[in-house]
Fold:
Amino acid sequence: MPWDFIGNERAVAALDRALREGRPAHAYLFAGPERVGKGALALKLAQALNCTGDTAHGEPARPEPSRRVEPCGACQPCRRIAAGLHADVQTVTVEPSGEGPQHKAIGVGQIREVERAVILSPFEGRSRVVIFDPADVMTVEAQNAFLKTLEEPPPQVAFVLIATREERLLPTIRSRCRRVELRLLPLAVVEEALLEVGVEAERAPLLARLSRGRIGWALEMARDPSQLDRRREALHFVRALATMTVAERLKLAERLAVDFRRDREGALSLLVEWQGWWRDVLLIQAGAQDGVANQDRLAELGQDAQRCARAGVLAFLRALLAARRHLEENIQPRLALEVVLLEAPEAAITAHLP
Ligand SMILES: [Zn+2]
Structure:
């Protein structure tokens, strides 16, 4: 496995080749679905650019600008980068807390800080690496400010822009980045990786299916099984919704809005679980049981497929997508949740009436 990286061999090979040929890009755009390893690969690239391969104890000599390209993972720079301690490798992200749209974006102020940092030569390694994760939340002003840096990139600096929605980046930014696309992994690869980290043989196939190829999600579930309780709770709600009254739905929306303020990712992942569930319901209605992710819940999926009309399911899936967008941008979270919960499909309890 090149670079000791699971999956997306083509992306890794492209990076490896460019480094071997001594022509790394000044800026990369790592594009692809959520949780497929874009952030992990950005760190691997930072390691590759700074690896000394020197595993001897004590302070390594000032690294020569050698042509070593495969990150060894064991030398001091590699270890410091993996631990987030390397002085030349920096991740720019949204503020972890706070409310309001200004906290869900990367703003001009953060770009100015990056500009100031990258004028200086690397402090402990060969290359300064600045990772924007996620880059697609940069405001337009921030992108315009960043464009100036991209037009005249300082030497010994590499930028990595991580994006699930690259269309949100200005074309002028995108055209100055070397695009590397990461994809969902085959389920067999995810399953193998899960077995490798010690997941039991009975559980691995289900987890792999639930991941839909998102290796990052799968490994996180393997590390922290309590996350699966979340899934159980999410699925409990999604099924209960079908028989809830309007008042009960509004009450649940209020509770979820409070949760969202406390734990944004958790609340968003709830909506993702719901999407997955109703997508499975659609598959069952279409007779495509093989594609179902929630293989351990086929009986309940079958019930929902029978009791809910397809049009209602489709409308709810659309509402879920819209709600996720609103929540991600922090636009009136409570209202977004109310709307989506009111759109949840109703069980056709009147189906037997004349
Ligand atoms: Zn190394």
Notes: The pocket of zinc ion is lined by residues 47, 51-53, 71-72, 74-75, 77-78 (CB under 6 Å). The longest helix spans residues 264-285. The longest strand covers residues 157-163.
